[in-house]
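User: Predict the structure for this protein chain, please.
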Amino acid sequence: MATNWQIGDRIQNRWEIYKILRGGMGIVYVVYDHEFREAFAAKTFQDEIFARNPRIADRFTQESLTWVNLDAHQNITEARFVQTIAGKPLLFLEYVSGGDLSGWIGTPRLTEDLLQVLRFAIQFCDGMIHALSKGIKAHRDIKPQNCLVTGDGTLKVTDFGLARVAAMQEAKGGRGGTYEYMPPEQWNNFEQADEQADIYSFGAMLYAMLTGQPPFGERPGVSVYELERRHRNNPPPSLRIQDSALRTIIQTCLAKVPTCRFASFSAVRKQLAEIYETLTGKSAPQPVVEAELDSEQWNRKGMSLSSLGRKEEALACHDRALELNPNLVQAWSNKGATLNELRRNEQALACYNRAIELNPRYEKAWSNKGNALKDLGRNEEALACHSHALQLNPLFEKAWANKGIVLRLLGRIEEALACYDRALELDPRDEIAWCNKGIALGAPGRHDEALACFDRALAINLRLEQAWTNKGAALEALGRYSDALTCHNYALGLDSRDVQAWFNKGAVLGKLERLEEEIICYDRALEIDSRQEKAWLNKGIALTALRRHDEALPCFHRAVKLNPNYEKAWYCMGLQLALRRCFREALACFEEAHRLGHPQAAEQIALWQQKLEESAPAVPLSIGQSAERWFSKGVALTESRRWEESIACYDRALEINPRLAEAWHNKGLSLYELARSEEAVACYNQALALNPRLEEAWMGKGHALMLLGQFDEADTCYGRALALKSKG
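Assistant: Here is the predicted structure, written as C-alpha cells:
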C-alpha cells in the first residue's frame, strides 16, 4: 500500500501533485485533475496508519461514503468522489484555497471583530444543521482545523466521519477527537458522542475564536490527563466580552451535563442570529439551503458510489446526471462501466455506443466498450476497440492493460506481455497490470517470472486479493504447496467471497491429500457461485477418492450440465457409473468424452463394450410361486445382466404382492439398463409411493431422468437420495 508520491508526480497519469500537507495521521495531496480540469484536495491516511490496522482502509471508505452522501451545501466541504489507488482509498474534496480557521484564531480578524465571529459561527451552524439532516449522528472532531475558509470568507465544515476512523487506532472504548475541544462524555466512549457533544466542541471553538485559545488550555503546555480533568470538572474561564448573551451561549454550550446544553444547532443559530441583529440593526444571514447538484456532480457522486460497491445507487446518480444533461459523455461512459460490473453487458454496450456517438474521440468509452465486448466473449471486436482507443491516445495506460487482457484470452501471449510492459512503463505503480502480467506469464509455464510480478503488485497493494490468489496458483504449479496455501488463506482473509481463492485452496489441499478439507473449500466456492463446473468436477473427484460414490456422481452430472463440452467431467462420470454397474450409461459417457477429445476414453469404450457382450450363466426357471422366490430369481437374473428375463420375474412377484417396493425398484433398474427410461421412472415412482425412504429408488430415478434430459428433476432426486444417506 506504500505510495511515496512526491510533488510533481502524476497519480495514475491523471492527478498531478502540486502540494502535500501532512498531519498527525492524515495526508492531503493538492492535485490538478487533468481529466476534469480542476483542483482537488485528495485526503487519506499515512501509509503506516493503514499498515498498523488493515481494517482502517475499509472504515475510511465507509465513512467517505457518508460524506459523499451529504451532497452540496455552501457550508460543507463537498466530497466529490472516492478512488482506491494502490490499495489506498483517497477521498477527493473540493479544493478550498483559503486555509482553515486555525489561521484566524488569536488574530485581530476575530478577537477584534465580533461580527466576523458571529458570521463564522452562524455559517458553522448552517453546515452542521445540513449534515445532521442527512443522517450524520455527530461530527466528533469539531475544531478550527476542521473549518476551511474560502477566499471570499465562507466557512466550510470538513472531515466528516474521519474521527471515527482515527479512533480505530485506540483500544476498544478508547478516545477519538481532539483533546482541547472534546466534551467530558467523549473521553470515555467515543461512540457515545452525539449532537450535544458537537455543541460542546463548538462552544470550545467559539471561545477560542473570541479569546485566541481554547477554554481549558492546549497541548503541549497542558498534559492530556490535566485536559481531561479540566473538561470534566472546571468551569470555563470567564470571558472578557461585553455581550452577556454571547457569554450565556458559550456557557450553555460548555455545560458538563449534555442535557443542560442546547438541544440542537438550530437553537444555537437562533440565539446567535438575535445577537447579530441586535449589534447591527440588520437581519442576520438567512439559513443556507442545500444546493441542487448539477449533472457533473451527480456523475461524480455515481463514480464514488460505484467504487464503494453501491452499484444500484450509482446507476441512479448517473441517470439523474443524464436527465439534467443527456449529452454528458462521461456520464454515459461511467453508467456503462457500472452496468458492466453488474454483468449487464448488453446495456453497458448501449451506453458506450451513446458516449461514442456524442464524442467519437473519447478514448475511455472505446476502451470501456472493449471491456464489455470481452465479457460477452467477443474478443476480436474487443481488441479492435482497445486498439482504436490507443490510436486516439497512445499514452492511455488502462487501454494498454485492457488490450493485454484480450490478447491473453486470444492466446497471443507475447503480444499481451508487450502491452502490459507498455502499460507499466506509463504507470509502474499499476498493481492490476502487474497482476495481469503475472497471469499471462503463467500460461506458458513461466511461473518464477509470474511470481516476481505478483510480488511487485503486492509491494504496491498488500490487500490485492487477486494477486495473492494468483501467486498461490503459481506456487502450486511450482510444487510449493504449503506456501501456496498461505497465499490462498491470505486472499480469503481479505475477501471471504473470492470464489477463485476457495477453488485454488481446495486444489492445493487435494495435492496435500487433505480431502475432507478440500471438499469444504469447493462447497464454499459453490455456495457463492453454483455455476463453477470445475469446482463440481474436483469435488466429485475428491468424493470418489473417499469412496463416497453416491455423492460423487451428482457432482459430475452438475459439471456436464453446466458445460456439455467438459470432456473430463464426462470421463469421470463414466468411471463412476461403471462402478455402479450402470454399463450402458457408462459407455455413453465414455463415448461423449472420446468425441470431445479425452485421451483415455477410447480404452474405456473398448473395455465396457467387451463387458456388455459377455454372456452370463443361466438361472434355473423351476421356482415356486411365492413373491419372494420370484423376486430372488429376478435379482439373480439382474446380476447376470439378463434384463428381459429379470423383468418377467419381477412382474410375477408383483402379481402376487403389488406392494413389494424392492421389486418395483429392481424392475425399474432393469428397464433403465434396456434404455426404457420412461417405464423405469414409472416403476421407481411406484417403489417410492410404497417406501419414500428407499434411497436406491431415488438414485435410480435420477439416472433415468438424466437420460431423458430432465436435469432439474434428476437433481432433485439425487438430493433426496443424498439426504437419506446422510441421515444414515
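The longest helix spans residues 114-133.
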